[in-house]
Amino acid sequence: MATIKRISSGGEYEARIGYCRAVVAGGFVHVAGTVGQGETVVEQCRAALAIIGKALDEAGASFADAVRVNYYLPDRAEFEACWPLLSEAFGDNPPVATMIECGLIDAKYRIEIELTALLP
Fold first, then answer.
1. How many domains does the chain have?
2. Is the pTM of the predicted complex or chain greater than 0.85?
3. Which uninterrupted H or E stretch holds 115?
4. Fewer CB in a 10 Å sphere around the end CB: N or C, the chain?
């Protein structure tokens, strides 16, 4: 029987919508789309990465184990400002990536990040 571990960060939408921050299953860590607090896209990106990093750590993984990342932004022109943070987070182990311009759950959010990592 496969083991599934669910990780909650206590985010405001987890209980309201019915999901958890991350699920460890089948040798992978699947991190839900994650937003962060702050006024600017850079502040929100930094905060989202911190939340994701904490979930990865709890699962026994790190950004170095990431294999796929998806970025969702309501304004694609803001994405470039986040590149230095993303490059720093993934370093010499970049995952495959996709950026999609779309609406997010609340207009205050400037970026949402979803990630999949392989358990080491």
1. 1
2. yes
3. strand 112-118
4. N
